[in-house]
Specification:
The chain is built from 16 helices and 14 strands. It is of the alpha+beta class. α12 packs across α13. It is globular and about 80 Å long.
């Protein structure tokens, strides 16, 4: 896969040869703008494992996801995380003193609160005796927080875990240049006037140039948008395909928002401002308006634009995870059982965004399921082209045989079961918080639609992917396969 994707990008006239492998199945989303009717799912096998603790999701919440530079712009990340924790406490009424551990994910850390989980927990009123730590794993940082919590419960170290994530893209750390930092540190150590004057004599104006957070892959120096553009070209995903899919995401999100289906959202009273009650990035447009936008990354011939990409987002999420016996003893009726998960990694150059394709068959085989068994799919939508390219790869025997070492394809998710309440393109994508949103969307959809299994997936920087698998809901024999791709 690596060599072919690189080859087709560098030799554009030859792209059609590669693209022929993926141009048979149409990708139009225009007929899929309405959510599917409630599923009539017959009961399937339980995925409980003998001699292993059942781990449940009691509930999860998120504050509204907002476009960066809007209502949250004057806050700090721990403010958002604290609001999510407070919302979870209010939603579940869980006593603070029974929480054994708190884990949060984040990507671009605020240096003043590098362990944002701890600062947010203290701000939300949790005991200072409750440990908390922060993890980072690009766009699946919240997923890593959840699976770390699963490990603590499965091993018997804990019974009650709070996992979540936060990102504040409105205020990212901007550093002095390395030369300026070095001079400032040396000035701090200088003991005499002569030493200080000697250091000042070395100062140059270019020392003042700021150092912005990197938006590119460290190993490749390429932005994710460039990777998405190359991936779309390699898999023959047209600009129209991408715009249609983005319009589908926004339309379904607007419908879900209007019908009150986004029940994981909790209001947040922003200090000094009004109470925020809903996501503000949901903006259904028209294909005509979307077609007017210029390429955002590869100019002038790229197909990835602002309209078919996820936007910079501020937000936070939190989830209460328990050992089943603890949850039942406290009178909770869990929403789902967390059963399994898989992480995979791919080449960050040419397979950065193909994680779902590689991880899906692994988690299904681990659970003894097929794509036909899944009732609700929730994939992270970094870009329309990324989603549609994965669909084509997943539905290709040729790709499976040549790049995955498999005899047959895994098959692509049917659109009528896929991201029915919108996705990251429309709801937003706070890097560290999206994982919990995906989990709760799948769990809530299964309960609403009468499904049994759900699958969650998310691509992320570094070419990593996590597949998290199965859940069984309380009151029903239903399991939820959670696929997480980084």
């Amino acid at each position: 896969m690596t060599s072919i994707l690189t080859y087709t990008f560098k030799n554009l006239p030859n792209t059609s040869k590669w693209a022929l492998q993926f141009s048979v199945r149409p990708l139009s989303c225009s007929s899929q703008l309405r959510a599917a009717p409630a599923a009539q799912t017959k009961s399937k096998k339980t995925l409980a494992k003998p001699n292993m603790r059942n781990i449940v999701v009691v509930d999860g919440v998120r504050i509204p996801f907002l476009q960066s530079g809007t209502s949250y712009k004057d806050l700090m990340p721990h403010d958002l995380a604290r609001a999510a924790l407070s919302g979870l406490l209010h939603r579940t009424n869980v006593p603070k003193d029974i929480v054994d551990y708190i884990i949060f994910g984040t990507v671009i850390q605020e240096v003043k609160t590098s362990n944002v989980a701890r600062e947010a927990a203290l701000g939300a009123g949790f005991s200072d005796k409750t440990p908390a730590h922060t993890v980072t794993m690009a766009c699946i940082s919240a997923n890593q927080a959840m699976t770390t919590g699963l490990g603590l419960i499965a091993s018997g170290q804990s019974d009650v875990i709070v996992a979540g994530g936060v990102e504040l893209m409105s205020d990212v750390p901007i550093r002095h240049s390395r030369k300026m930092r070095k001079m400032m540190l040396e000035l701090n150590k200088a003991k005499t006037l002569g030493q200080r004057l000697s250091l000042f004599s070395k100062f140059r104006l270019n020392f003042l140039a700021p150092e912005l957070p990197a938006v590119a892959e460290f190993s490749t120096s390429e932005t994710m948008g460039h990777s998405a553009d190359r991936l779309a070209a390699a898999f023959a995903v047209s600009r129209q395909d991408q715009d249609e899919y983005a319009l589908r995401s926004h339309s379904l999100a607007k419908k879900a928002q209007d019908e009150g289906l986004l029940s994981d959202v909790v209001p947040f009273k922003v200090p000094g401002k009004d109470t925020v009650t809903k996501d503000n990035g949901i903006r259904p447009s028209s294909l005509e308006q979307m077609a007017k936008l210029k390429p955002a990354f590869i100019k002038p011939y790229g197909t990835v634009t602002a309209a078919n990409s996820s936007f910079l987002t501020d937000g936070a999420s939190a989830m209460l995870i328990m050992a089943e016996e603890k949850a039942l003893a406290m009178g909770y009726k869990p929403k789902a059982y967390l059963r399994d998960f898989v992480y995979v990694s791919q080449d960050p150059k040419d397979q950065l965004l193909l994680g779902p394709t590689y991880a899906t068959p692994k988690v299904l085989e681990k659970a003894g399921l097929t794509m036909n068994d899944i009732d609700a799919f929730e994939f992270h939508e970094a870009f329309s082209g990324q989603i549609l390219a994965n669909f084509k790869a997943m539905d290709s025997d040729w790709f499976a045989q040549n790049y995955m070492g498999r005899k047959t394809k895994v098959g692509s998710p049917p659109l009528e079961k896929f991201n029915n309440w919108g996705g990251s393109l429309s709801l937003g994508h706070p890097f560290g918080a999206t994982g919990c949103r995906l989990v709760m969307a799948a769990a809530n959809r299964l309960r609403k639609e009468g499904g049994q299994y759900g699958l969650v997936a998310a691509c992320a920087a570094g070419g990593q992917v996590r597949r998290s698998s199965l859940i069984e809901a309380s009151g029903k024999s239903f399991s939820w396969t959670q696929n997480r791709l980084i």
